[in-house]
Amino acid sequence: MPPRWPLFATFFLCILFGVDAFTFHSPKGFELVRRILLGALPTFEPHSYQLDGVCKVLDKVDLVAVTPTGSGKTGFLFLTIIVMIAIAKNPSLCPAVTFPKDPAIVVVCPTNSIEQQMEGNMAKLGIHALMINAETVAAARTRGEEDLWKRAREGISMLILGPEQLISRGFQDLLNYEPFYDRVCALGVDEIHLLAMWGLAFRKAFTQIGFMRARFRPGIPIIGLTATLLADPQIADAIFDFLGVNRGEFYLLRRSNARHNIQILFRTLYSGIDGLYFPELAWVLSNRDKTLIFGATISLVFRIKIYLDSRLPDSVDRDLRIRTYHSINWPEENLETIELFKSHPLCQIIICTNGLAQGNDMSRRSTRGSGFL
C-alpha cells in the first residue's frame, strides 16, 4: 500500500489550486463512459440508471442494484468490464485512473442456467467469458481439455462461478496465481436475494461470499444484483452481511419492479399433487401460448410431463412440444430447452423446477407462467 502522505498532498494541492479530482460518477464521467460504450457497442444505448451504477463501480464503490427482471441487470457487469478494458488498452481515454492490463470480473451465479445464459450473452458482446462449475470441470476433464482453472488465468474477462466453486481448491490456486489476483477488478453476485433464502437452508456456500471477498485485492468493489430485495430490514441486512457490505457504505440503486402487464390468476387444484393426473393443466395444450409450469420437485415435473404427453395425439412430437428442465438433465440439454423455447414455434411448454425461475430472460417470446405446484 502506498504511503498516505502523497495522497494527502495531492488532495491538498487540488483544493489549493481549485483542481477537481476526477470521478466517473460526475457529468464528465458519465459522458466519458457513455462515449466508450457507444464506441464498443454502436447499436446499444445504455440506460441512465445503468450508467449511474456502472460509474459508481468504476469509482470503486460497492453497488447493490434492485431492478426488474428484463431491465438489464446483467448490463451492470458487462458495461463495467467493457469500460475497464477500453481504458486499460488506451489509457489516454482517462489518464486520471488506471486498470490492470487484462482486467477481469469474477461473477457468482446461483444456478447453472444463469451461468450458461450469461456466458453466451457475453460471447455475443465480444467479451471473453468462462463458466466454471462442477459439470463444466468434469466435462473438460472427460474431453481431455486444458484445466479450466488454468485457462482462467489470462485472457478471460468474465469468470462465472457457482458459489461452491469459491471454496474449491481450484479457485484457491487461481487466486494464489499473482497475475490473476492482480487483474481482478470487481466481484459480481447475481440474484442476491437467494443468499438468505438458499444460504440459510441448503447451499451454505452462499454464506461464504463475504468472507471470500476479503481474499481479493483491497478496494475491489462488489456488484450485487436482484429484482426482489424485500423491504424487511432483517432480511435485507442478512443479505448485506453475506455480501460483506454495511448500510450507508454502499450505493443502493432501487427501481420499481411493478409489472403492470402481468395478470395473476389463481386456480384451485382439485387433483392430488402426489398423483398422476392433472386435468387442471390440460388447458395449456389447447391455449398454445408459450408456457412455463413450475413444479416443487423433479418427481412432480416428470409426472406432469407424462400426463400432458398422454393428452397429445400420436402425430405430435412430444419431446419438442413439451420439454423438462431440472438438475438431472445434462446441462447441454437444459440449454437446448431454453433455446428451443425461445426460437422454435412448436416448442410450447417447459415443465421445470425452481432453478429456471431465477434470472432467466424469456423476452423473445410472449411467455405465460402457469404457476408453481
The number of helical segments is: 16
The topology string of helices and strands comes to HHHEHEHEHHEHHEHHEHEHEHHEHEE
**Helix proportion range:** 25-40%
Name the CATH homologous superfamily of the largest domain: P-loop containing nucleotide triphosphate hydrolases
Backbone structural class: alpha/beta
Number of domains: 2
CATH topology of the largest domain: Rossmann fold
Q: How would the global form be characterised? A: globular
The gyration radius over C-alpha positions equals 23 Å
Percentage of residues in strands? 5-15%
Poorly predicted parts: 1-19
Taking the sheet with the most strands, its summary is:
7 strands, parallel
Distance between the termini: 55 Å
| Strand order of the biggest β-sheet | 3-4-2-5-6-1-7
CATH class placement of the largest domain: Alpha Beta
How many strands in all?
11
Average of the residue pLDDT scores:
83
CATH architecture of the largest domain: 3-Layer(aba) Sandwich
Describe the structure.
Its EC number is 5.6.2.4. Residues 1-21 form the signal peptide. It holds the Pfam family DEAD. This is DNA 3'-5' helicase. It catalyses: Couples ATP hydrolysis with the unwinding of duplex DNA by translocating in the 3'-5' direction. This protein is an alpha/beta fold and 373 residues long. The chain folds into two domains: 19-254, Rossmann fold, CATH 3.40.50.300; 279-372, Rossmann fold. The chain is built from 16 helices and eleven strands. It has helices at residues 4-16, 27-40, 48-58, 75-89, 112-124, 134-142, 148-151, 169-176, 178-183, 194-197, 209-213, 233-243, 283-287, 298-310, 318-321, 331-343, and strands spanning 63-66, 104-108, 129-132, 158-161, 184-189, 222-226, 251-254, 290-294, 322-325, 349-352, 367-372. A seven-stranded parallel beta sheet has the order 3-4-2-5-6-1-7. The longest helix is centred in the first third of the chain and has 15 residues, at 75-89. It is globular and about 70 Å long. The relative contact order is 0.12. Mean pLDDT is 83; it is low at 1-19.
